[in-house]
C-alpha cells in the first residue's frame, strides 16, 4: 500500500469534480475527504487534522471567498488552494489576499495540482520560501518601467486593450510588452504571473 502523503479536504458543489479529485488525489497517495459545501466543511473543521484545503471559488451558499474570511478567524491554519474559472483573475487575486496560498484555473493539469498540494503540505521551510521570494523580486526588478506598468495591469485583470488605453499606446505594443513580461518573470500563464506577483510583494492586502 502507498504511504499516505497527508490530508486533503476537497470542497466543491459539483459531484463530478469531487469524484474526479477523489480519484486523482487518492491515487497520488493523499488521504482525501470530500465536502459538497463550505458550511459542511466548517462544521467538521474543529475535528480535522492538519491538511490542505482545495475549494472551488464559486459555490452556492457560502462561496470560496467567504470561506477564506472564516478560515482567517480560525486558530487552526490550513493551507488553502482555490479553484477558479478560466480568466477569473480579479477573484483569484482577492482569494490570495485573503490567505489562499495558490489558485488553479479550470481545467487544470493533474500533475500540477498534485505538486501544488505536496508543496502546500510541506511549507514549513521559511528559509526556502524567503529564497524563492528574493528570486521573484529580482525578476520584477529586471522589468523596464513600462513593463512594470503592464505587469500591474495584467495582475489587476485588465485586458490588453484597457491597458493600452490607460497608457495611450496601441494594443499591439502592449502585446510586445506583455510577452517581455512573461519571459522575464518566467511565467507560462497569467494565473502564474499573478502568483509570482503575490510572492514578490506587488499585490498587498
From TrEMBL:
Sites of 4-aspartylphosphate modification: 56
GO MF terms held by the record: DNA binding
Keywords, ordered alphabetically: DNA-binding, Phosphoprotein, Transcription, Transcription regulation, Two-component regulatory system
Domain HTH luxR-type: 136-201
GO BP terms in the entry: phosphorelay signal transduction system; regulation of DNA-templated transcription
Location of the Response regulatory domain: 7-121
Coiled-coil residue spans: none
Superkingdom assignment: Bacteria
PROSITE patterns recorded: HTH_LUXR_1, HTH_LUXR_2, RESPONSE_REGULATORY
InterPro entries, per database record: CheY-like_superfamily (IPR011006), Sig_transdc_resp-reg_C-effctor (IPR016032), Sig_transdc_resp-reg_receiver (IPR001789), Tscrpt_reg_LuxR_C (IPR000792), WH-like_DNA-bd_sf (IPR036388)
NCBIfam families: PRK09390.1
Protein name listed in UniProt: Two-component system response regulator FixJ
Protein species of origin: Afipia massiliensis
Amino acid at each position: 500500500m502507498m504511504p499516505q502523503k497527508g490530508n486533503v479536504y476537497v470542497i466543491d458543489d459539483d459531484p463530478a469534480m469531487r469524484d474526479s479529485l477523489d480519484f486523482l488525489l487518492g491515487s497520488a497517495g493523499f488521504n482525501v475527504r470530500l465536502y459538497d459545501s463550505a458550511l459542511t466543511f466548517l462544521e467538521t473543521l474543529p475535528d480535522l487534522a492538519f491538511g490542505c484545503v482545495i475549494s472551488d471559488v464559486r459555490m452556492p451558499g457560502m462561496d470560496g471567498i467567504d470561506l477564506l474570511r472564516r478560515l482567517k478567524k480560525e486558530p487552526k491554519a490550513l493551507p488553502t488552494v482555490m479553484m477558479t474559472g478560466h480568466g477569473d483573475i480579479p477573484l483569484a487575486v482577492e482569494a490570495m489576499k485573503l490567505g489562499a496560498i495558490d489558485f488553479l484555473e479550470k481545467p487544470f493539469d493533474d500533475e500540477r495540482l498534485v505538486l501544488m498540494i505536496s508543496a502546500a503540505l510541506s511549507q514549513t521551510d521559511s528559509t526556502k520560501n524567503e529564497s524563492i521570494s528574493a528570486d521573484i523580486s529580482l525578476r520584477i526588478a529586471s522589468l523596464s518601467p513600462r513593463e512594470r506598468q503592464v505587469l500591474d495591469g495584467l495582475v489587476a485583470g485588465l485586458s490588453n486593450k484597457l491597458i493600452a488605453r490607460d497608457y495611450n499606446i496601441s494594443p499591439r505594443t502592449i502585446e510586445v510588452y506583455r510577452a517581455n513580461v512573461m519571459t522575464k518573470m518566467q511565467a507560462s500563464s497569467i494565473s502564474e504571473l499573478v502568483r509570482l506577483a503575490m510572492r514578490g510583494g506587488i499585490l498587498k492586502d
